[in-house]
Amino acid sequence: EDQRSLLLSSSSRFPPPQGVKLSYGTAGFRADASILQSTVYRVGILAALRAVKTQSVIGLMITASHNKVSDNGIKVADPSGGMLSQDWEPFADTLANACDPQQLVQLITDFVENENITLDGAKSVEILVARDTRPSGESLLEAAKQGICSIIGAVALDMGILTTPTLHWMVRARNKGVKASEIDYFEQLSSSFRCLLELIPRGSDSRNDADKLVVDGANGVGGEKLEILKKMLNGLVIEVRNSGKEGGVLNEGVGADYVQKEKVVPCGFGSQDVGIRCASLDGDADRLVYFILPSKSSRKIELVDGDKILSLFAVFIKEQLSILNKKRNVNVNDGYQCCLGIVQTAYANGASTDYLKQLGLEVIFTPTGVKYLHEKAAQYDIGIYFEANGHGTILFSEQFLRWLEAKITELSDVAKGSEQHKAALRLLAVTELINQAVGDALSGVLLVEAILQHMGWSIEKWSKLYEDLPSRQLKVKVVDRTAVVTANAETVVVTPPGIQEAINAETAKYPRGRCFIRPSGTEDVIRVYAEASSENAADSLANSVAKLVD
Ligand code: NG1
Ligand code: ZN
């Protein structure tokens, strides 16, 4: 009864916006910040219920990632540090769209009963709340806290401004019972990075100023955090641009989404950067792409996207596994077969898929959205997933980790310092450097840099692993995007009938042509993707298919 009146009184302070229907998409709730107070308050309630139900720490992140600065959003991190379990998404939707306090409280009461959640507050639970640098974040964070505190026994811990992946990492670490502050996160990243450099065969040939990395921080939280992290690193010189302190606007003409979609030089970069290794983070630092400025005269960049980061990681992991499995000092052939899986979406450049398959790797496709890729990758001993836009990570199974640790113990007895021993130590360092909760631009950048140094590769050499097929992405505004339903990891349109046949007929006109359409999960549009052997051909294929949708 106390619980009921607590909810009734707090929810009356957060009336929902009129005439908007929100849905918990692939990236949580996202909208113009001015209409989000009630949604964020309600997601606070949901997170508290999730914490009580799982008896674990839950995370709440207030961000709209690469969207414009006036937008904001909120998403929930589950106990593992991953995305909210998909079976709670419908509840998130109904909760966000309840029209008055009575209906809201009724929905919560029914849900609590169905899920067998005991709300006696006997054991308190914690919800970690953080936000990116958006000005609207402060008051939204307050609304989230109010939601959390409306559930008896739930405690909100304000973590302040963090990157999205740091919050996910903290949730995961806290639930494992290990150290989980932001400094612990930075320390884990910098020490595993150092470890990888120390294991470079020729000895670590520290990079100097002439070989610096320049990072575009998207005028967001990532740049500001990288300024702290870079001071903890040896053997790598990083210059941060667009850290948000120079007055630029978040995600405006900067950041990973802009660089990847427009393929042009971001603000703050120019002729002085020709030939230099550059990288871009997105607004909440969970995406990473690299790029090179090929010439002074053009705004065009050579993009080194998520597919290429994936390929670099795959080459390195595969190499270390094969060194480790060579019968030399210790017979590692103990019957354990490490299963390595690569997960992509239909947006992966066709040339990357060909390259990975030609390396003998198993490549699997899922629909767009990190939750699908992550779930698939988790089915392997080592699962590497990336979206072309630069969101991705590497997952290691518990079984693999136990096997690796046993190997290291064994090798350090009989073959200390051998190549086999070093390969095992490198893999262990990767498990600590890469953020296994979610894609993370800061941990990603350090793994890329460590591997490039290990291989002795320049960014040009890396970029030439394979040559991207020309591609074009378009979006078409439609009245009802749900009218388009797809299958086979979004590569085939099922309804409306007839469209797929028309797409096939168009695609057949182009050598190496590939094209698909799908409804966006984050915007009110149908996205068109086309690939072909020349830029003109890719543009023309995309345009003619876009006309079919209109
Ligand atoms: P939608 O709007 O569903 O295409 C976009 C990205 C996804 C993912 C989500 C979440 C593209 C083509 N799509 O989804 O990869 O990152 O946003 O942020 O880049
Ligand atoms: Zn993001």
Description:
- This protein has 550 residues and is of the alpha/beta class.
- The chain has four domains: 160 residues, Alpha-D-Glucose-1,6-Bisphosphate, subunit A, domain 3 (Alpha-D-Glucose-1,6-Bisphosphate, Chain A, domain 3), CATH 3.40.120; 118 residues, Alpha-D-Glucose-1,6-Bisphosphate, subunit A, domain 3 (Alpha-D-Glucose-1,6-Bisphosphate, Chain A, domain 3); 157 residues, Alpha-D-Glucose-1,6-Bisphosphate, Chain A, domain 3 (3-Layer(aba) Sandwich), CATH 3.40.120; 79 residues, 2-Layer Sandwich (TATA-Binding Protein), CATH 3.30.310.
- Helix content is 41%, strand content 18%.
- The protein is built from 18 helices and 19 strands.
- The chain has a five-stranded mixed sheet with strand order 1-3-2-4-5, with helices on both faces. The chain has a five-stranded mixed sheet with strand order 7-6-8-9-10, with helices on both faces.
- Helix 8 links the parallel strand 6 and strand 7.
- Helix 10 runs parallel beside helix 11 and helix 13 runs antiparallel to helix 14.
- It is globular.
- The model has no long low-confidence stretch (mean pLDDT 94).
- Zinc ion binds next to loops.
- If you consult CATH, what is the topology of the largest domain? Alpha-D-Glucose-1,6-Bisphosphate, Chain A, domain 3
Task: Give the CATH class of the largest domain.
Answer: Alpha Beta
The CATH superfamily of the largest domain is: Alpha-D-Glucose-1,6-Bisphosphate, subunit A, domain 3
User: What small ligands are held by the chains?
Assistant: 2-acetamido-2-deoxy-1-O-phosphono-alpha-D-galactopyranose, zinc ion
Query: What count of domains describes the coordinates?
Result: 4
Radius of gyration: 24 Å
The CATH level-2 architecture of the largest domain is identified as 3-Layer(aba) Sandwich
Roughly what is the average pLDDT, rounded to an integer?
Answer: 94
**Count of strand segments:** 19
Strand order, main sheet: write it out. Answer: 1-3-2-4-5
Counted by DSSP, the helix tally is 18
Tertiary shape: globular
First CA to last CA: what distance? 53 Å
Helix content: 40-55%
Q: What's the story with the biggest beta sheet?
A: 5 strands, mixed
Q: Which regions are unreliable across 5 or more consecutive residues at pLDDT < 50?
A: none
* Beta fraction: 15-25%
Structural class: alpha/beta
